[in-house]
Amino acid sequence: MSERHDIIVIGGGHAGCEAAYAAARMGARALLLTMNLDHIALMSCNPAVGGLAKGHLVREIDALGGIMAAATDQNGIQFRMLNMSKGPAVRAPRAQCDKQLYSRWMKQFLENTPNLELKQGVVERIIFRSDGCKLRVEGVELQYGTRIDCRAIVVATGTFLDGIIHVGGKSYSAGRAGESSADGLSGSLREMGLTTTRLKTGTPPRIDGRSVNWDILEPQHGDDPPRPFSFLTEMDLPGARPAFPAQPQIPCHITHTNERTHAIIRANLQRSAMYGGHIKSVGPRYCPSIEDKCVRFADKERHQVFLEPEGLGTNEIYVNGVSTSLPEDTQSEFLRTIRGLEQARITRAGYAIEYTFCPPSQIRATMEAKDIGGLFLAGQINSTTGYEEAAAQGLIAGVNAVQHMRGATPFVPGRNEAYIGVLIDDLVTKEHTEPYRMFTSRAEHRLLLRQDNADLRLMDHARRLGLVDDARYRAFERYRECVNNEAVRLKETRLRPSEIPSDLADEYGLDGMQKGITLSQLLARPEMTYGDLHKLGVADEALYELSFSARAIEQAELSVKYEGYIARQEEQVGRAASHEARALPGDLDYAVVRGLRKEASLKLAAMRPGTLGQASRIAGVNPADITVLLIHLKARGGNYLSRISVP
Amino acid sequence: MSGNQAFETDTIAAPATGAGESAVAIVKLSGPRALDIFGAMFVPSGGRPARLLPDRRLTLGQILDASGCAIDDGLGVVMRAPHSFTGEDTAECHCHGGRAVVLSVLDSCFTLGARPARPGEFTRRAFLNNRIDLSQAEAIADLVAARTSLSRKLALRQLRGGLSERIAALRGRLLDAAAQIEAQLDFPDEELPPLARQHIITHFHETETEIARMLAGFERGRHARDGARVVIAGPPNAGKSSLFNALVGRERAIVTPHPGTTRDTIESTIEAGGIPVTLVDTAGIRSASDNIEHIGIERAKEEIGQADIVLLVLDASDPSAPAPALTEADSHVIVLLNKSDLISSTAPSVQLTPEHAIRVSAVTRAGLEEVERRLAESLVGCAGEDELMVANARHAQCLRGALQSLACARSAFERDMPEELVMVDVRGAIHRLGDIIGIGLEDDILDRIFNTFCIGK
Fold it and tell me: Which of B2, B127, B187 shows the shortest C-beta gap to A634?
């Protein structure tokens, strides 16, 4: 009798950890399989979590009971809230982390999670059977022949599928520097009918911190005091409030490339794996190699370089901004032209890596493969980049693997609910020629999807799915009640000039107002803050006494200040969103839809969107095509255009 | 099966020319069986079967009815899919314009298997087959409805894609501005050049001006499409009805030398500078002595209130005629000094000749051309055709929305509101412009950011 679990997660990276943890939290017996148990949740690239839109994702993962935010709070060594000079919707937390501590903490955390087992092993093959026209997964077979049965699988293999690392003209098979790739599994995926193709990404060299002339470099310190990622870290849970920050805080440093750096890079372009023609796959535009920067933006005199510590217990420094596939000697040569790095000694060379991914047009918004029951894909295998994007998918895949097993309704957040919803919808409706990264500009509901209200948006889902426990949910409910009550009070309370001292009435320009003004009208003035209400004696003083007072006050303030713009944004978006929840029949033959342009017909046939809303976002499908589809479906009759609740 | 499905497989037929009598009429067939039906009812004189005619070449031949009897001699032409207007197989019979002939040819089509086209169905097929975009489809609807030469010109211009190009250019420039703003939001750690706020504000302002100009053109173009109402008004016996008749070109209004003859309003349609004009003759305005005339005067006042243009007719030969008190608000009033044939060119006419008044004579027809020219000028303005590009109400509605959004965006920017709030309206404006030409937003902004800035670590 072979070993048996409910859910098997293949891969112990950021997607795999969240998938396994979510499944276990929901009560499923989960097994996390990884090639190296000492490399759980390793940060293969830069030692940081968060940033614009990514920080938003982490807050959402946290609100859905995920681990990434708490792990960052426990292992972060520099916290910054970005864009503080701009509005709240585009503020985002970012933290430098200690890579080793992060990995070790995560391993221990998962080890202590009930229902979850961790196991080292390389999956050679997915075992499946044919169930009519559809395949169903049954288990996996490991490298040494062990068979493990399960009811659903989450594949979260990152860059490890057929990974090939390139440095200069040399290349070798690897999943990450120093680790072997997984070469059997991609064949198994193809055997099940999945199409695979290749992407590339890159990473910069790491250097010895003792070889850097720190004294002449500009330091970049974190916020003081730092703000945590996890709502849990801030909440007043009985006896469970963790210390924050948990680690000593240290700065990063900033330096720049210069003309000499660029001259060396240009002179050696042909020796770069990318420019020398060794790599044909496409890399991300927003994460260009230093070679790319010098070629595409040749007139730029200098490029920024961030020196980020890899951790507290190591001298290694991550040289952020100079991702490269040049030979190691050239990497060393150009690094030494950079101010402060004149003596720099490379500890690990930068490299480009090519890997196999499955174009995500093959999965549904639930993360399940369209034609393979019980097979879920999450993370870089779906063409994304970034720890946060991976973790978000892992969580959703883990949840839906359990829902699949139980025959329960899958969970797919909408584009108006979460960046996670935007991410998944973009994955399944767009064509991906470069690794996908989240940006706030991708979210048409941006003003709603703020990092400060992720729990208000998502905690009820988490509760319903069994992802958060009673204590946390009760604390959240208390907080939500305070926020809602205060929002109502601000709307209903009217301030008359006669009620306040005349000097204050004068200061706030209230003395002329006979009928007075509601508190929300007053607060809506651009220069007003909740602190001004406090000064006028009309704030809710009880709010100041709560453990989460800062957050509650912030929410109350935002509910007023953003209201008009949110209404306008929703009106703008609403015009396009009327088809959002209209189901498209799965068996629709787009080739015979009369009047559908060839391009649209091919795209739709390839993507097989679940709803008319998804169809409308597919690149190459224009509004006229949607009209044609509507006409066709009406003509076809039946209730295909009935509204559905699940995409 | 629902009735809607039929259009996908049916062959349709309809006269492509208007309902009135004309020298030549065209009957058009479109759909999968168009060539079969055409082949059965048209015999080319060369002996070659109609089905084998080369594409888009007019050929002389005989048009038959369903039983094979000749109806008419005429021209035939075939256009095979997808190289036709509808994107389907299409054929046309050009026959003589008599009503009976056209009906016979149509009857032949229907008997052989076509069905009557529904209004706009050719255009809808063209649209569904992606032969034309949304704004072009709408232009064709306008073209079909176009009543006069200028209206046709407007519709034709839009059909050729002029509007689509202009809108795409405006939208492109807004996308550039959006990319500048968004880059600041999504990439705070990058060393981007500081946001050129003033430049962007100026840019928004210019775009607003351009949209406003297009909308003003639409307002003028409204006359070109829908026609204008021009009311002839003035004191009794100034010769309004004579002038009305002279402008209309036939005796419609009863003319007598007695003041107060016209008791009700009379309308007729003329064309002024290519614009359809409904000309309205009214009763002279004075203190009426009889009740019927009184009612006529009330109607006249009502008409004047609704007029796009008022032709105020004064009697040039009557030195006692009161001078009109025109103000700025009366810019839509054109003063005509009638009966100018009765006075010598040097003698003073009305006590106070208003500036720009036109001397006319309904009797000698002197000055009538000038009246038409002035009418056309007032209705169309001195605008070039360029400004008359927008001729469709939906487009105007989208443009108004874009204009409003841009004004909000600019004002928010000027008040230093956070950029992500400004972007709500910038995106709104981009969406509204995209609506005109039928494209969504997709990844346009991100693409522009990556093409413009060196982003990424």
Answer: B2
